[in-house]
TrEMBL record:
This protein's UniProt keywords: Gas vesicle
A GO biological-process term: gas vesicle organization
Keyword DNA repair: no
Keyword Transmembrane on entry: no
Pfam families: GvpL_GvpF
Name of the featured protein: Gas vesicle protein GvpFL
Polar residues bias spans: 318-328
PANTHER family: PROTEIN GVPL 2
Organism: Natronobacterium lacisalsi AJ5
Region Disordered, residue ranges: 223-259, 295-328
Family: Belongs to the gas vesicle GvpF/GvpL family.
Location in the cell: Gas vesicle
Amino acid sequence: MTGNEPDATEELETALDEQAEAVADEVPEIDEGRYLYCIVRTEAETGESTLETTGVDGEPVSVVVADGIGAVVHPCEGIYDTADLAQVRRWLVRHQTVVDEAGAAFGTPIPFQFDTILRGDDERVREWLREESETLERALSELAGHWEYRVEVVETEPVPDEALIEDDDRLRELDTRIDDSEEGTAFLLEKKFDQRLAELRAARRESLTADLQDRLAERAREVHALERSPTASLDDAVVDEGDARAGTGGSGDGGAGTGDGDTLCRLTLLAHEDAEEAIGSVLDDVAATDGLEVRFTGPWPPYTFAPELGGGEDRNGGNRSTNPGPSP
């Protein structure tokens, strides 16, 4: 099993292209706001403290606290919007880094989407924390000690057609008939032959995915399948770009994936940190299969599994939010 360093360029480019038109015509004006990274539980009941890191564009990061719940923020005067892909990548990495460091300092955070902004000052943040305290308390309690992990199973050496023919009566019949048929008939039979091969490969992929999901579900709290090709989402890009930055492997040997082969499945898991070794053991079994490679990354903040925070009437674009919660 290997860790991976996926190239997020294509995903980011697609996501940016799809969202550029949506945000170009209406960029909200913000006289004063707070860029939100994540929510954490703190020992302090109220006040403000610093986090020893810098945020997007090098901004100083602080933790604004109300009733034992902290929002990791930095002051801002507008959303982060640019057509410069390299700049967006730097912003994503910094966003992920701040959430990572908040998680290391305070435990499992509730992460915000990239470019989520609350209109107002620190006092408005405290007001919002109190307004949402019931939801935030429940989420922090339910997610405590749990993290997100990403799994990708890649077929680096496809099963030969000959092996599939040997194991399938229908394929053997078609293969024999093709050899004994005239050109026109043989052409039609070859079409059926290729369709049957595709069906068998799809069935094998679905069976492997279902079996892996069942085995992981015994060790994780939640398991969800992702699109086999990375989705054009800046939410996923935050994690995927973090993969590229860190090249992490939750367990196994680590190292870089080859980038070759056909992705059979991509899964995201919510699991307690104590279950990481058991999950790695399941994935090691899969990786021991000839022709398969498993890429396992994490732990990440639970982007996929955290409750949706923010948005509402002022939501702009797929991932840019202003003024989560009621308007001040």
